[in-house]
Design a protein that fits this description.
With about 260 residues, this protein is of the alpha/beta class. About 40% of the residues lie in helices and about 25% in strands. It has ten helices and ten strands.
Length: about 260
């Protein structure tokens, strides 16, 4: 069976310093290789600056990879149109206060992806938006609201709705709980888990919360200095970590991780 997502020898190089003795380029991310099956959840963990966000932004098509390839259902990203990539993989950014335009109503925020990436009629777009609002637990009344009129949790629900309105195969959540306290954060996680159960989508979580990672993920990738230093099932990562980086991350968040 073909994996839903295959990341093959992915690299991202950034230009180095222009000053004396600069090498011109430096490896920032890579090589990255992994697969993700439909309906499964991958967690990506690592210290700040380890390359987690850059990796998921490449998978989401927000930034281009320097080399390597990404496949969805066996089809290369390079062979897909921008619209098809947008419909296949959607990303939820860390802070909805930044990612949601404060001058645009929720209705227009949710309409934009459909106008840009589908050929749906106005009525079809309206029905899709109403279904998506219901999916994330919001009422139609919110369509006329602006983001700053909503609570933090409701803003996150809108961000999830914007990601889900195109019925993607994969949702990427990039440290989305960092702006919420624990109880509200787990409410958002539960919404995503319910959506996953209903829709059969795959999820990629970037998180520093090891308890959350252990609770929701099927497999874990550990990043350090742009490299994948460990990749395994969640059970293996938590019960038998192999790398010092992994052990340090688990101990810093959950000292009794071996129990």
């Amino acid at each position: 069976m073909t994996a839903l997502l295959t990341v093959n020898n992915l690299y991202k190089k950034y230009k180095g310093s222009k000053y004396f003795l600069s090498s011109g380029f430096r490896h920032a991310i890579g090589p990255i290789n992994f697969t993700l099956d439909r309906g499964k959840t991958l967690a990506i963990i690592g210290e700040n600056g380890s390359g987690k966000s850059s990796l998921v932004k490449m998978i989401a098509g927000v930034i281009p990879a320097t080399s390597g390839d990404i496949f969805i259902n066996g089809i290369s990203f390079s062979a897909m149109s921008r619209q098809d990539r947008c419909k296949s993989v959607r990303i939820i950014f860390q802070d909805p206060n930044i990612s949601l335009n404060p001058k645009v109503t929720i209705g227009k925020i949710l309409t934009a992806p459909l106008e840009l990436n589908t050929s749906l009629t106005a009525e079809q777009r309206k029905q899709q938006i109403l279904k998506t609002l219901d999916l994330v637990g919001l009422l139609p009344d919110y369509l006329d609201f602006y983001p700053n009129m909503l609570s933090s949790v409701q803003q996150h629900q809108v961000a999830i709705a914007r990601a889900m309105v195109l019925n993607p195969d994969i949702i990427i959540a990039d440290s989305i709980l960092s702006t919420l306290d624990t109880s509200l954060g787990f409410k958002i996680v539960n919404i995503l888990l319910e959506i996953q159960a209903k829709k059969g989508i795959s999820c990629i979580f970037v998180s520093h919360n090891m308890n959350l990672v252990r609770h929701i993920s099927d497999q874990v990738i550990v990043m350090q200095n742009g490299k994948m230093v460990e990749s395994n099932t969640t059970e293996q990562i938590f019960n038998s970590p192999q790398e010092a980086t992994t052990k340090s991350l688990l101990q810093s968040e959950q000292p009794d991780y071996r129990k």
